Every structure is written in structure tokens, then in C-alpha cells.
Amino acid sequence: MSALNKYKAIIFDWDGTLVDTCGLILKAHNFVRETFGEALWTMEDFLGTASKSAREYYPEVYGERSDEAQTVLYDFVEKHHIDMMKPMDNAKALIDFIKNETDMHIGVVSNKRHKTLLKEAQHLGWHDHFDCFIGAGIAAKDKPSPDPLLMGMADISEVLRPDNVLYIGDTETDLLTAKNTGCDIVFIQSDSPRPDLIEKYSPTYSFMSTNAFYCFIQSEFGQKTSEMAEKKAC
Q1: In this predicted structure, what is the pLDDT of residue 232?
Q2: What is the mean pLDDT of residues 150-179?
Q3: Domain 3-20+87-233 belongs to what topology?
Q4: pLDDT score at 226
Q5: Omega cis (within 30) before 87
Q6: CA–CA gap between residue 18 and residue 20 (Å, rounded)
Q7: The pTM is what?
């Protein structure tokens, strides 16, 4: 029996986990930084600094002009996000596998602005595959607060508990979110090893890519999948 059988739901982060938008987000933040006279970020700066949603991080940087800066950010993302977005390798296959070959619910909890998150999911044709979508600004606080993940769990089922939910994410914010909520986590390192974060947070599972997790979950449910295939053939 797979160790994954203990989970009743798998909930995903979005950016860097299911879709590759890292370049877009860096460009968007740097457009804002240039507009407001701040030094531009490198990718390393971005990955090390942008651990909060814009709603919570921008007041620290832009002060009284935070709302204006967020408007510039979201306008840039709105203009470019569809063209610059692409699914992670085998992300769709992973979603389909969980949906069709396991008994687990599936959801998304992200720090991406909620309406942008929904638009991207609809563009990809993925919206109907998930049992919940929670983006930034929907819960009282954004990640790493437990509020969005708890809200997503409640949307899926009132009987879900943190100990039977597996969260999948690729940043320290996601690791903190899982820790603050009491969920197990799959840490996707996105091909950039982060032994420091693994040592600090001790994630339940760690993989170098979304595709690697897909291969793992296939192997974990291989026996069940074969049995289901036999039943369908009968």
C-alpha cells in the first residue's frame, strides 16, 4: 500500500509548480522597481526576496505608494501573463493522473492574484480539473499564513484535516505555509537544488521537478492503476 493513501487531497501551488511563470514575475517586479526608482532584481534576488505576496510585501518597499505600485505590477502581469506562461513538464499528465487514477481531491492555493489565477487556468483548459482555487486576496491573509490553505480545504470538504492533505510547492513560502497549516509537503526544487531549505524544513517529499513527482506518484499507484485498467477492460 502506498504511503500516499493517507491523503484525501493534494493541493498545489501554481507558479513554479504547475506553470512556469518565473520569468514573467521577475520582469513584472522589475518593471515596477524601475518605475519607482528601485534597483533591479537578478533572478537570485527575486527568489531570495519575494517570499510574500505583493499585497503584503509592497507596503514594506513602496510605503504610501504601495497601492500605486501594485496597480503597475498587476497591469503588467495582465498584459503579458498569457503569452509568457507555459505548463511545467507533465503537469497536465500529473493532474489527470490524480483526478482519474486516485481517490484524492485536487486543488490550487496560490499567492497569484485570484482573477489572474482563474484566467490562466481557464486559458489552459484546467479550471474544471480542480476542486478549489484560492488566489491572493481571497483569504484574510496570503501565504505563508495558513488562511488560504485552510480556506481551500474547506472549499473541498468540511471533513478535510491538515494531516490528510498534501501540499505541493516550490518556494520557502510554500514550505512555511505547510508548516503553519500542519500539512505535509512535497518540495519541488525546480532543477535548482536547495539543501538549505530541505535541512531547515524537512519536507515530507522532495523532487527536482514536477515531472519527477509525477513519475513518483505513478509508481506509488501503479498497482491500483493496473487494477482499474483491468476493470475497465472487463
Answers
A1: 36
A2: 96
A3: Rossmann fold (3.40.50)
A4: 41
A5: no
A6: 7
A7: 0.81
